[in-house]
Design brief:
6 helices; single chain; mainly alpha
Length: 136
C-alpha cells in the first residue's frame, strides 16, 4: 500500500501543470495538434490512484503561457522534474504512477501522427519530457 500524499494546493497545481503541459508540448510538436491534445488529455483523465485524483480535480490552476514551444518547454520541463522529485519524496509508488501516466498520455498523443506513428519532432519532444521525468 502506498503512503498517502500530503500535497499542498501549490504542489497539486505543479503536478497538474506538469502533466497537462507535457501533453501540450507533444501537441504543439505534432502535425495534428488538436487530435494529439485530445488523446493525451483523455489518457490523463484515465489515471488511477492518488495521482488520478490530483489530475482529475476540477481546478483552474494550470497556467501555461508563452508564444513559442520553447517558452512552453521552459515552464513544463522544470515542472515535470519538480513534480517527480516531490512525489519521489512522498510516495515512490505514486511517483512511478505519475511517470507512467504522463508517458502513456504522450504515447496516446504521439499515436495521432501520420499512420499512427510519431514524427521526428514528436519523438524528440518525448525524449525531452522523459528525461525531465527521470532527472528527479
Amino acid at each position: 500500500m502506498s503512503a498517502t500524499l500530503a500535497l499542498t494546493a501549490q504542489n497539486e497545481a505543479t503536478v497538474r501543470s506538469a502533466a497537462y503541459g507535457a501533453v501540450s508540448l507533444i501537441s504543439a510538436a505534432s502535425d495534428k495538434p488538436h487530435k494529439a491534445a485530445i488523446a493525451g488529455s483523455l489518457a490523463l483523465t484515465a489515471a488511477t490512484g492518488q495521482i488520478g485524483h490530483v489530475l482529475n480535480a476540477k481546478s483552474k490552476d494550470i497556467h501555461l503561457s508563452g508564444k513559442t514551444i520553447a517558452d512552453l518547454a521552459d515552464q513544463v520541463l522544470p515542472a515535470l522534474t519538480a513534480a517527480a522529485t516531490l512525489l519521489d519524496q512522498q510516495s515512490p509508488t505514486e511517483a512511478d504512477n505519475f511517470r507512467t501516466t504522463v508517458l502513456v498520455a504522450l504515447e496516446a498523443a504521439a499515436a495521432t501522427g501520420r499512420n499512427g506513428h510519431p514524427g521526428p519532432v514528436v519523438t524528440e519532444m518525448t525524449r525531452k519530457v522523459t528525461a525531465a521525468l527521470h532527472t528527479a
